[in-house]
Design a protein that fits this description.
Elements (H helix, E strand, L loop, with lengths): L7 H8 L5 E5 L2 E4 H17 L7 E5 L4 H12 L3 E4 L6 H7 L3 E6 H7 L18 E6 L9 E5 H5 L11 H7 L4 E4 L6 H12 L3 E4 L7 H6 L3 E5 H13 L9 E5 L5 H11 L3 E7 L3 E6 L1 H6 L1 H4 L10 E5 L8 E7 L6 E2 L3 H7 E2 L2 E10 L5 E6 L3 E4 L2 E4 H9 L4 E11 L3 E10 L7 H12 L7 E4 L13 H5 L5
Parallel strand pairs: 1-9, 3-4, 3-5, 4-6, 8-9, 10-11, 11-12, 23-24
Antiparallel strand pairs: 1-2, 6-7, 7-16, 12-13, 14-15, 15-18, 17-18, 18-19, 20-21, 22-23
Protein name: Acyl-CoA synthetase (AMP-forming)/AMP-acid ligase II
InterPro entries: AMP-bd_C, AMP-bd_C_sf, AMP-binding_CS, AMP-dep_synth/lig_dom, ANL_N_sf, ATP-dep_AMP-bd_enzyme
GO molecular function, one term: acid-thiol ligase activity
Length: 477
């Protein structure tokens, strides 16, 4: 098996281990050498349980050294690895566990970690064309889908290879001395940046308990991942009751893009620590922009960054022809190959080696990507498609509005009607009539919200993203 098959670079890094701390849980410090021995024991346990190439292994794990070691071991034996969230409905759990041979939770991981080392060579056993992992989408645009990523694709990823790091990632890597991990290490983002942390010589620090800003101050963390909603809350908290965040050097914003005004405010309040990125479960990271870029250029601040050289972008019109603005198609080295057991959606999204993002976008003259809305985030008014994204940006640009969200509701006259929810800026009372006039002038009457309702904060889904479904069912006052 070639040395470069995933997760061989991680195994090699750990095998060369010493007493460097790589995982911290409260008073417990796990060194590189200790973690390597743990991976060896868990690998032996998984082999004994029948795990190997092509075998489905589902992981329902939290944040422990054993959980991290189990994930690496499951890949080392060449299994088809799938992370399972604990809050799934019975139907979704049954669907995601279909074809699974072995389910490993935290208790089983601790048990596997006590398996005697079988003395066998620890060499990545994955077959390049086999599915290495199934990453489940958040379901923000429908039912969760399983993104199937092969061992060949995972082997092409940049995280464990410093010589492959794009410039923005190389900048981020210098700030990962103490990277906070929380939720589940099976998470795509948590694992990817956890591997980056190890390759950069840093330590993964388990947040006990999780929650901003306390966990940053408590653990003297230098870096973490944060959703847009939590970042907005952190900025508000730091204005009114600031915590000691002097150790913080990087916050990687995950989930959905931030309006330029909110990004500028975050940089002003938190300092040059915010990294704004864009990616999808199907593709991994597509673009990233650093704090220095955003502080130096208004165009960068209004974007989601530039793609690395290995990533190719194509913007196309409704007929599939190249366009200055239109739907974004992407190619990344580590992209998924298909949706698990879903040939219809696979044919719709994975097209001739490209991934349809179903996001509207444009590239500016400096190569920065600007998101303009989501293809399917639409309201059908009088049989015409009205995109929510442009309306949200117009509303959020108003000085009395901090955040804006647009949904569609059934309407007896127009089929569907546009409704907006706005989080007021501090000390402001948005004028709904004036805002509707602003939208009409910028986008036309069809885009004018039938109602504009102030809310204290947007509801969020388990993924941490704004829950537009919940908004759509809120009572209009």
């Amino acid at each position: 098996m070639p040395a470069e098959v995933w997760p061989q670079p991680v195994l090699d890094l750990l095998a060369a281990g010493d007493d460097r701390p790589v995982f911290e849980e409260g008073d417990r410090i796990v060194t590189t050498a200790q973690l390597y021995r743990m991976v060896r024991r868990i690998t032996a346990g998984l082999r004994a349980a029948g795990a190997g190439p092509g075998v489905g292994v589902a992981l329902r794990l939290g944040v422990t050294a054993e959980a991290f070691a189990t994930i690496i071991a499951a890949f080392a034996v060449g299994a088809r690895v799938s992370g399972i969230r604990p809050d799934l409905s019975p139907a979704h759990r049954a669907w995601q566990l279909g074809g699974t041979t072995l389910l490993v939770d935290d208790a089983r991981a601790a048990e596997l970690a006590r398996t005697p080392d079988d003395g066998r060579p620890l060499i990545a056993a994955g077959r390049p064309d086999d599915v290495a992992r199934i990453i489940w989408t958040s379901g923000s645009t429908g039912s969760p889908k399983g993104c199937a990523q092969t061992y060949a694709a995972m082997s092409a990823a940049w995280a464990p290879y410093p010589d492959r790091w794009p410039p923005a990632v190389a900048d981020l890597a210098t700030r990962l001395q103490r990277y906070l991990v929380f939720g589940s290490l099976s998470s795509q983002v948590m694992l990817e940046y956890g591997i980056l942390t190890l390759a950069a010589g840093g330590t993964l620090v388990a947040a006990r308990p999780a929650g901003f800003p306390g966990m940053i101050a408590r653990h003297r963390a230098t870096a973490s991942v944060i959703t847009v909603g939590k970042l907005n809350q952190l900025v508000r908290d730091q204005r009114t009751d600031p915590a000691d965040l002097s150790s913080l050097r990087a916050l990687l914003v995950s989930g959905s893009p931030l309006p330029p005004g909110r990004l500028a405010e975050a940089l002003d309040v938190l300092g040059p620590v915010v990294f704004h990125g864009y990616g999808q479960t199907e593709t991994g990271m597509i673009t990233m922009v650093t704090p220095a870029e955003m502080l130096a250029s208004p165009a960068a601040l209004a974007s989601v960054g530039r793609p690395p050289p290995v990533t190719t972008l194509s913007i196309r019109d409704a007929d599939g022809r190249p366009a200055s603005e239109g739907e974004l198609f992407v190619r990344t080295p580590a992209q998924s190959a298909a949706y698990w057991n879903d040939p219809v959606e696979t044919a719709e999204v994975f097209v001739d080696g490209w991934v349809r993002t179903r996001d509207l976008a444009r590239l500016d003259g400096d190569g920065y990507l600007h998101l303009l809305g989501r293809i399917r985030d639409v309201v059908i008014v009088q049989a015409n498609l009205v995109y929510a994204g442009p309306i949200e940006r117009i509303l959020a640009a108003d000085p009395t509005v901090a955040e804006a969200y647009v949904v569609g509701r059934p309407d007896d006259v127009t089929g569907e009607a546009v409704h907006a929810y706005v989080v007021p800026a501090a000390g402001c009372v948005p004028d709904a009539g004036r805002l509707r006039a602003v939208v009409a002038e910028a986008l036309g009457e069809a885009s004018v919200p039938q109602s504009i309702q102030p809310i204290e904060r947007v509801p969020v889904a388990p993924s941490g993203k704004p829950d537009k479904r919940a908004l759509a069912y809120m009572t209009i006052r």
